[in-house]
Amino acid sequence: QWWVINVLANGLLCLTHFVAGLLLFAQGVYLIATQWRRFKTIWIWAASHGLFLAFIPFWIKLVTTGNMEEQTNWIVWAGLDRAFRAYFFVFAGSYQDAMDFVRTLPFGIPVHYILGALFMLAGAVFVLYCSRQWQQHRETAQGYTFTSATFLLVWLFVPPATLFIVARLVRPIFIERYVLFSALALFLIAGGAVALLPRKSLQYAAFGLLALVYAGNLVDYPRPLRHDFKSMGAVLREEFAPGDHLHTCVDFPDVPIGYYS
């Protein structure tokens, strides 16, 4: 029964956002990595998604407002540094987009490097611990078994890597928020690393440090968090006449301006 629920959930995901198909692909990679002897089961699981995947071309044809070139021509080519910043800045929670500006602390240290470094350190601790336990064939807690850790690592790396490869081979399409769901795997891995600390007091201190860094990032975040279109609408109604020109640095301002004015 769980397989049925899984297939239905995947179908809804794929018919909601095309890039969500990366999650389906990641699940297939996980099954092959952990249950490769059950080839028949994996094949049945993959084939059961065919009905949903067959509707994707019709879904795209119905919802798109233009061709693929028009919908994606704003996306720039991404290099390996952009992929690294996706994990270091975006998935860690510093910014929504790796291209956002990052302020600096004294001595030129970027403030958001602190949060990214903490998550990279936690991830390294988690992977090293799991690898050591597996090599020594030790019995581990559920969250650190081969299947559990593989699930998290596949969830973390496969969707972004797949999108990045497609962006390099087909057309630029690598946008961090398209695979932001992989950030949850990073949070779980970091939590697993904190849980390895030997004393509760150290675990609480680690979570307190993360909360403090997040609070510092929030204070540093550029203001305003949202453009004040409502106040601008009042100005337009009172001071602008038909035919006047409005210059703005905001992308796609016509919808909110039209609503509030």
Name the features:
single chain, mainly alpha, globular, 261 residues
User: Runs with pLDDT <50, length 5+?
Assistant: none
Q: Tell me the radius of gyration.
A: 23 Å
Number of helices: 13
Structural class by secondary-structure content: mainly alpha
Distance between the termini: 52 Å
Question: Secondary-structure map with pairings?
Answer:
Layout: H1 2-14, H2 21-34, H3 39-47, H4 50-54, H5 56-63, H6 68-72, H7 80-91, H8 111-135, H9 146-169, H10 182-195, H11 200-220, H12 229-239, H13 254-260
Helix pairs in contact: 2-9, 8-10, 8-11, 9-10, 12-13
Brief overview:
With 261 residues, the chain is an all-alpha fold. The chain is built from 13 helices and no strands. It has helices at residues 2-14, 21-34, 39-47, 50-54, 56-63, 68-72, 80-91, 111-135, 146-169, 182-195, 200-220, 229-239, 254-260.
Describe this protein's structure.
- The chain is mainly alpha-helical and 261 residues long.
- The chain is 64% helix and 0% strand.
- The protein contains 13 helices and no strands.
- The mean pLDDT is 81.
